[in-house]
Amino acid sequence: MLMPKKTKYRKSHAPKRGGNATRKTNVSFGSFGLQSQGAHWLTARQIEAARRVMTRFTKRGGKIWIRVFPHIPRTVKGGEIPMGKGKGAVDHYVAVVKPGTILFEMDGVDKTMAKEAMELAAYKLPVKCKFISKE
Hints:
With 135 residues, this protein is α+β, with helices and mostly antiparallel strands. The protein has a domain at 32-76 and 88-133: CATH 3.90.1170.10. It is built from 2 helices and 7 strands; from the N terminus they run E-E-H-E-E-E-E-H-E. It has helices spanning 44-57, 111-123; strands at 32-36, 40-43, 63-66, 72-76, 89-97, 102-107, 129-133. The protein has a 4-stranded antiparallel beta sheet, covered by helices on one side. It has a 3-stranded antiparallel beta sheet with strand order 2-5-4. Helix 1 (44-57) runs antiparallel to helix 2 (111-123).
């Protein structure tokens, strides 16, 4: 799964999710893209699940680019631990997604196959998405 090799600080505060995306808003690498319509945190597991379903649907044809990376740590404390005693251990990493962010890009397959693969990937994500093409 995706996670940073090294971070400056082990734990961090919760990131802000408001506003629209100002970067990663255009299809840059491939011909087709999956664009988010809302704001959410994507976990590394969700990104990996979407990538796997796209790869399997295209039968490993074409090329897929992942445009988001989960670099923000989320911490969790155990179930029956009393209040206090510091912050919990790092459990997983998330990527902040704002409306308009391109999540995935694809090239090397025809438009109908790319659209179907991206729709299957969108089912795996907690944010509403739409299929877009470069032209």
